[in-house]
Design brief:
The chain is an all-alpha fold. It has two domains: 5-90, no CATH class; 96-320, Heme Oxygenase, Chain A (Up-down Bundle). 72% of the residues lie in helices and 0% in strands. It has helices at residues 5-12, 25-41, 46-62, 71-92, 100-114, 120-125, 130-143, 147-156, 160-173, 180-190, 208-221, 227-253, 262-285, 289-320. Helix 3 packs across helix 4 (71-92) and helix 8 (147-156) runs antiparallel to helix 9. The N and C termini lie far apart (42 Å).
Length: 321
């Protein structure tokens, strides 16, 4: 029997995961999902990757960005995520065991080389074409889905000072005055756009790489060892202030008011502090050279995936011209 996303979503609605698959069904579906994962993440079949990422996406949004208990969905999520993360590690990982000072140097160098604030598409956005900017915004906004849930998962996997820093970042997402979700949405809607989390993948402006990025953050946040995710989120926070300064300039030229631009003005400086905190935690908590190398790999995986997303956005903008 084929695995349908609609069937997975229907099963996840059951809060107690009480539906048992029939005899032989789970075995048959496991073989199917394994074949899909192999095509997607080993053979690099783009159509298979699109299907696999959609399965992960819908399980994530329907199950609060946590691995499900439901038998078929749990098997699909675990199998595909394991194969996805393994492929990312093979492709973008490979940092050897390094010292703490060398880890810090490599982390900073990775942001300098692969931080999306340096991507050529940023120059395209500065040209003032609102249609091009909307394509970027759809993919940026969509890739933010699950961000706070991923931080919450990482809180559970850290201890001591690291837990405090992650929790502080999570708390900032829910500022008592106005949450970051509200700020993002306020700006997004100023572009004449609205977001439907369940229908987002059907938007012709949406690129596969945006879904790959958010699914990867979810997987890294659920690894038992938090060093990978700590490196990942360091890369997020270190790239974002210089990129936000670009978007602030672009949108001030469009004549937007300070209320609408509050997301950009706040993040143009605040994440400098956050990235320094993440780096400081990694420098103090990485207890071995292997752990230092893992943190570097986590950062590089996220940065390279975001860069790939921007490559795909640039291509999509080119197709629309």
């Amino acid at each position: 029997m084929p695995l349908h996303i609609a069937d997975l979503r229907r099963q996840i609605v059951d809060p107690w995961a009480s539906e048992e698959p029939g005899a032989g069904v789970l075995e048959e579906l496991t073989a199917e999902v394994t074949t899909l994962g192999r095509r997607a993440y080993i053979d690099d079949d783009r159509a298979a990757r699109s299907h696999a990422e959609a399965i992960l996406y819908f399980i994530n949004i329907d199950n609060c960005f946590a691995p499900p208990l439901h038998a078929v969905a749990a098997m699909a999520w675990t199998t595909l995520m394991r194969m996805k993360l393994g492929a990312l590690r093979r492709r973008f990982g490979g940092c050897p065991p390094v010292s703490v000072p060398e880890m810090s140097r490599r982390l900073r160098a990775a942001v300098e080389q692969w931080g999306a604030y340096n991507h050529p598409v940023i120059a395209t956005l500065h040209e003032g074409d609102l249609g091009a900017y909307r394509i970027w915004a759809k993919n940026w906004f969509g890739s933010c889905v699950g961000f706070s849930a991923q931080l919450a998962a990482l809180v559970q996997r850290t201890t001591g000072e690291a837990k405090k820093v992650v929790l502080e970042n999570l708390t900032d997402e829910f500022d008592h005055r106005v949450t970051h979700d509200v700020l993002r949405t306020r700006f997004y809607e100023s572009l004449g756009l609205s977001f439907d989390v369940a229908g987002a993948l059907d938007d012709p402006d949406r690129v596969l790489e945006a879904t790959e990025l958010l699914n990867a953050r979810t997987g890294l946040a659920y690894l038992r060892d938090p060093n990978w995710a700590l490196g990942c989120f360091y890369g997020v926070e270190a790239n974002w202030p210089p990129e936000c300064r670009h978007h602030l300039e672009i949108n001030r030229k469009r004549g937007l008011d300070d209320h609408t631009l509050e997301y950009w003005t706040g993040h143009a400086t605040a994440d400098d502090h956050h990235s320094a905190e993440w780096l400081g935690v990694l420098e103090r908590m990485c207890a071995s050279e292997r752990a230092c190398g893992d943190a570097v790999d986590g950062a590089v995986i996220q940065l390279r995936l975001r860069w790939q997303m921007y490559d795909a956005i640039a291509a999509r903008i080119g197709e629309r011209k």
